[in-house]
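Pilot study result, target chain (505 residues):
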Amino acid sequence: MTYENPYMNGQIWPELNILEILRQRNPLVICITNDVVRTFTANGLLAIGASPVMSECSEDLKDLIVHASALLINIGTLTPDKVSYYKDAIALAKKHEVPIVLDPVGCHAGAYRLSVVLDLIKTGEISLVRGNQSEIKAIYDALSPNNQADTSTTGKGVDGGQIEDSAVIAYRLARLINCPVVATGEEDYVSDGTRVFTVPHGHPIMTAVTGTGCLLGAVLAAFFSAYYPCKNRLSMGEFLAYALAYYGLAGESAVQVSGVKPGSFSVAFMDRLYTLDDAVLMSENRIRPVVVPDQLEVYFISGTQDVELNENRLLSIVEDACRGGVTCFQFREKGAGTLVGQQKLELAQQLKQICAKYNVLYIINDDVDLAVAVNADGVHVGQEDMSLEAVRNLVGHKVVGISIHSVDELHKTDVIYADCVGVGPMYATSSKPDAQVPCGPNRITELQAEGLTLPCVGIGGITLDNAKPILQAGASGVAVISAIAHADSPYEAAQQFKHLVDSTK
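Predicted structure:
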C-alpha cells in the first residue's frame, strides 16, 4: 500500500521490502543448535538469503562473533558442558553487541531444562525468546510475580500444544523479561511488550518434519539484521510478525507442490523459502493485531487542552503517568488553541518516545494521518469520524479503537475492523463538552450480552471512587483524563488506578 501522508511533505510511503533487505545484507547467523537439526537449519538459512555457521566451542566463537549479525542458542540436545558454552556465548555476544535468540526446546517437559532456560534469561542479554506455546507458558509460570505456576502441560517431550491465552502470556512474558517473545502453535503470537500480533502458523505438516520449529528460531535471528531500515515504519513486534508470516506462507505454498508428504515437503519448503518475495508476502494479509486486556487496564487520555495548553507540562504529566503504571496513552489534541500541523506532529513524536520508553501502548485520537506519520501503535475514532473499514485500510496492522455508546450503535458498527472499544460516558464529565448523556457501567454488560467480544474500557467522569463498578461490569480497564491530568501527582494517581485494577481482577 502506498499512502500520501500530509505530515511528510508530500512524500509517498515506499512499499515494504523486508525480504529484499534481508537478502542484500546476507547476515551471518551463528547457530549453537541441537545435533538433530544442524543440516536443516543451515540449508534453511541459506535458502532465505542468510549465511549460517555452526559453532561448538568458545575459542571458535571468539573468532566468529565479530562478523555475526545474530546468535541462535537452541537447547535441544542439552548437556552440562553445553550450558557452560551457552553462558560463554552470551558474554561474547554482549561484548560485540550481537543479538541473541533463545529457543528453549522442551523446557516445559523437565525441571532441568527449565532451570537452564531461566538462568540464561536472567542474564538480561537475550534479545528474543522463541518457543512453542507450552514452552513459553512454562517460562512465564516460573517467572510470574504472582507465583501461581500451572504445572499442567499440553504435549509430550519437546512437543507442544495449543495453550489458551497465549496472546496474554506472550505479552506478559515480553514485559517481564524485557525482550520480544514468539509463541508458536496453531496460531503464532508475537509480542514486543507493547504490541501483540497473531499469524497463522502454516500447514499442519510442518509439525511432522523435524527441524521446522528450530529453523524458525534461526530465521528470526536472521531477520534482526533487516529491522533497522524498517524501524520508522514498523514496531519490532509487527516486523517479527512479518517474519512469521513469511515462514508460514512458505509452508502453506510448499504443500501445494509436495502434497501432504513429509519427505517431499522438506524439499519444497526450502524451495519456497528461497523463491518467496516481498510482493507475495505483502499481498497476503496474514497478520492480525491483537489487543489483550492488560493493555487497556489504565488508559490515560490527554492533550494540551487538558493542561492549560502547556506542551512541556503535558510531556511531564505523561511521563509521570507512564512511570506510575499507565498501560495505554491516547493523544487527544482537540479544542480552541490546540496544536495543528508541524507543531502537533513534533509533540506527537515526543509523546511516542515517552510511551516507547515505558512500553505503553500509544494511540492517536481521530487523526489517521498523524498516527501513520509518527508510527503510533494505533488510532481511536468516533462514530462520526472516518469509517472503520477506511481506517483499517489506511493504518494496516495498527490498533483501531472505536467509541460505542449504545446497543444500537454496536449493531451499526463494523466491529470486524476494530480491536478495542471505548464505552461511555460512564458518568457525567466536563472533559468533553460534546459528551452524551451518561449511560453507567451497566452499558458494558448490555453490549457484551449483545455480542461485543472485543476488549473495552469505560470512559467518562471516572475517578478512583467510582471506577470499580466499571471493572466489575466487564470492562478490561478504565479510561481517564482529569483524574490523572489534574492530579497533584500524576505518578501516584496512575499507581492508584493500576492497584485498583489489579485488586479487582
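One observation from the pilot: The CA atoms of residues 102 and 129 lie 5 Å apart. A full batch analysis is planned for the follow-on phase.
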